[in-house]
Amino acid sequence: MVNEIYAEMDQKHGDVEYLRNRAILTPLNEHVENVNINVLQRLPGEFKVYNSCDSICKGSTFSEADDVLYPPEFFNSLKFSGMPNHEIRVKIGAPIMLLRNLNAKKGLCNGTRLIITQCYPFLIEALILTGNRIGDTTYIPRINMCPADNTLPFNLKRKQFPIAVCYAMTVNKSQGQTVQNVGLYLPSPVFGHGQFYVAVSRVTSPTGLRIVVVDSAKDQTGLTKNVVYHEVFENLP
Q1: Residue 81: per-residue pLDDT
Q2: Which CDD domains did the record assign (predicted)?
Q3: pLDDT tens profile 182-218
Q4: Of 62, 70, 108, 202, which residue is 20 to 30 A from 180 by alpha carbon distance?
Q5: Which domain holds residue 137?
Q6: How far apart, in whole angstroms, are the C-alpha atoms of residue 48 and residue 89?
Q7: Do the Cβ atoms of 214 and 186 come closer than 8 Å?
């Protein structure tokens, strides 16, 4: 899939149009991370690693034993949908996606794609690829973020760059994006109503869609499930 969608990566890894018109979609975040690392390893240059600063929000818990019960290594291991991981690995020239609204007037909204031009210790310089400010250079700082997960007995605060590498992205995150070349990578079937339709409708070119289905049943090679909740049609006139 990577060879098909990101062909000629060696020569065009810094081409803005090349990166803007390509994306690999997959259902789960763990698959997204695997694909992104695979493509990043092909990009020339050294990795720049950014680690977050994780802590418990003051006032969200009253236990004096929190430092013993929840060491930093535990916080660092937590992953949440819509939030960056503790460790972000990037390279200059890699495309990224914003995970938070930073400045709508400057085109820095949740879902905006950019390409990294410089990596500084506490700042990332990037070129905007999508939206109404295409071509503008901007700077992304670290910010404090709290997950929407209510299952934890405390409120986690993570200070990190609100970005994720986006050679690949989840199907849900791709809503609102349109590109010429889309690879739909399915190591597992889609799990939500309409996800398959969302994925295949992201492509704008009649020949720009590629689909890879992994681990199909022997009698259904090349087939995958299309999840539809029929209940949504019950009350239609």
Answers
A1: 84
A2: SF1_C_RecD
A3: 999 999 889 888 899 999 999 998 899 999 998 765 5
A4: 108
A5: 2-233
A6: 6
A7: yes
User: Comparing C-alpha atoms, which of 63, 55, 22 is closest to residue 166?
Assistant: 22
Q: What is the pTM (predicted TM-score) of this model?
A: 0.88
Cα separation values, 16 from 34, 93, 115, 118, 153, Å: 23, 9, 8, 15, 44
Return the SS3 of 18. helix
180 touches 208 (CB < 8 A): yes
Chain center to CA of 233: 31
Name the token pair of 28: 């789960």
What does each C-alpha distance from 207 to 169, 182, 199, 200, 221 come to in angstroms?
20, 10, 15, 12, 22
d(CA 24, CA 170): 8
State the chain's maximal CA–CA distance in angstroms: 61
* Number of residues written out for the chain: 237
The total domain count for the chain is 1
Beta-carbon contacts of 131 under 8 Å, excluding residues fewer than 6 positions away, are 107, 109, 112
Helix, coil or strand: residue 19: helix
CA distance 189 to 70: 35
Lowest mean pLDDT across 47-56, 74-83, 141-150, 210-219: 210-219
